[in-house]
Amino acid sequence: MATYDFVFNALGLREWCDAGKANEGTMSMADLMAQTQGQEHQGVSIWHLPFPSMDAFNKACAAFPPSRDLTSSLENGFLAIKGALRFVLNPLTQPLSWFLEWALFIFQSTPWWIMFPVLMAVVYLASKSAKLMWFVVACIALLAAIDLYAEAMQTLAIIFVCAVLCVLFGVPIGIAMSRSDTLRRMTIPVLDMLQTLPPFVYLIPLIFLFSVTEPKLYGIAIILYAIVPVIRLTDLGIRLVDKDVIEAADSFGMTDRQKLFGVQIPLALPNIMAGVNQTIMMSLAMVVIASLVSAPGLGVLVLRGIRNLELGVGLVSGLGIVLLAIILDRVTKAALDRVNAAQKQ
Questions:
Q1: What phi and psi values does residue 253 have, to the nearest 5 degrees?
Q2: pLDDT digits (tens, 9 = 90+) for 51-66
Q3: How far is 82 from 6, CA to CA, in rounded Å?
Q4: Which residue from 206, 193, 218 is spatially nearest to 287, judged by alpha carbons?
Q5: What CA–CA distance (Å, rounded) separates 296 from 280?
Q6: Is the pLDDT of residue 161 over 70?
Q7: Which of 27, 127, 213, 237 has the fewest Cβ atoms within 10 angstroms?
Q8: Which one, of 102, 5, 100, 112, lies nearest residue 61 by Cα?
């Protein structure tokens, strides 16, 4: 007798349960052992009472679905609509594959003696700091000296494309959320889910939808994982704009568009830049995980070190990721400091 037989007996469902038991077919060894263990523990104290879960009810009533039926139904439902999803998503996401392929080609094919001055110019324009510029050059030179230059450029190319797309999509979404409380209430649960979902879980449905050889597979995962901070902080930055400033803009007869681009976005720029910083750092973290689905770069070497137990390869490639993280963090924070200093003047 199972623990929760009394539930189905009290509800008058015993015939339904017995019919399910008659149709269940051959019992597996695991089910037989579980039934034997259940018989051994009959009459145990309430201390060992199992939680009334689906599997516990299934032991008392074979017609009651076990938890594995739930996971199987979810999987079968996804596989049933996979073809329609691919038909819709493939043309929409194909440009992402092109952008990633072009960026990887440009970053890898450009000679180092051209890439170094370009990086120096970008860093100096963003930070106006010669010290930071030479620090970045020293870090990239160190990566090149230990033969990690190609992998570092691949990682930078992926982060560049995904971070730019996160900003292009995230900032308008954040602006729309700041202007509509209804949209904000609808979007916040989605952002909470994206922010709390484990990074590996992003890859599971995408593997079924796209080929592992397509760059958009890891590109979509990186964007979904990294876009949340820029959306949230854009919304927060615009909402934190002083209402007195908005009233002053209204008194001058400014339209909503003029207030947005002339007042709200400039005042919210520090928060937006903080969101961009977090988005870039989260993109770097996801690039390493995306190496499991053929994303090139330093993450491949980290994965190789884990798979082959090559301690040196794993540590050196990890050092390269740390250096890239420091570079990206310092440059974006320097740009944020410039924005804050300009607003204080």
A1: 80, 25
A2: 888 888 888 888 888 9
A3: 42
A4: 218
A5: 17
A6: yes
A7: 213
A8: 5
